[in-house]
Amino acid sequence: MKKILAFALALAMILTCSFALADRLDDIKAAGKLTVATSPDWPPYEYIDDDGNIVGTDILMCQWMAEQLGVELEIQPMAFDACLAAVGQGDVDMMVAGLTYDENRLARMELTGIYWNEGDQGVLVKKGAGASYNSAESFAGKTVAAQNGTNQQIMAEEQLPESTTVELVTKIPDGVNMVKTGRIDGLVVPKTVYDSILAENDDLEVADFAFDFQGGNYIASVKGEDAFTAKIQEMIDTINAEGLYQQWVDEIQK
Q1: Are 230 and 113 in contact, with CB atoms under 8 Å apart?
Q2: pTM over 0.85
Q3: Does domain 121-210 sit in CATH 3.30.70.20?
Q4: Of 182, 180, 179, 186, whose CA–CA distance to 144 is shortest?
């Protein structure tokens, strides 16, 4: 009898845990809000405008997603690596921050399909220096920066010469200032981001060299939340089919 009771109790606990893991979508609707972690230093995807508001193409997408779910959107700003930790620990519902695919992340979180292809990956340098950086070897002995925890960090470390120093920054504006002041020689960023930066900084340009990169932006959700992740993917499919993300890009960049 004791063994039967112990088994029944264990089974009940397993089922309770399973339902708790599977019910995040219901929990979001019950709470009336979708909680999203982002690193607002990645224009035009997510950044802080002159009025102190967090805006950007990813934010417009998240607002649209919240509307589809019938809930409010709650943005939690934090550093990029903190975003990874937050979604990995289940502290937020999802992470949207120009996130690219990395197989190592799959152990900690779910990744959706691509919702936006961010294009080329380049290096921001001082005005007039772009032509001198026409190959990976051009960066030998130089110092470049990349945002900590991003694919840009991985590309810089793997595709540039060993003699290249790769400094890690928490916020992209810090890296931009480091280039402008001459502390570093370049900042590794994707095309959509450097286009936005160049629009505000006429003393910078992009190096002729471009990284070997194929991929796009993904959304990360909490590991094991299959129903919620499937719902996100369903909305991404609609975004892609209707060209909504391009509309948001046009709205932000107009």
Answers
A1: no
A2: no
A3: no
A4: 186
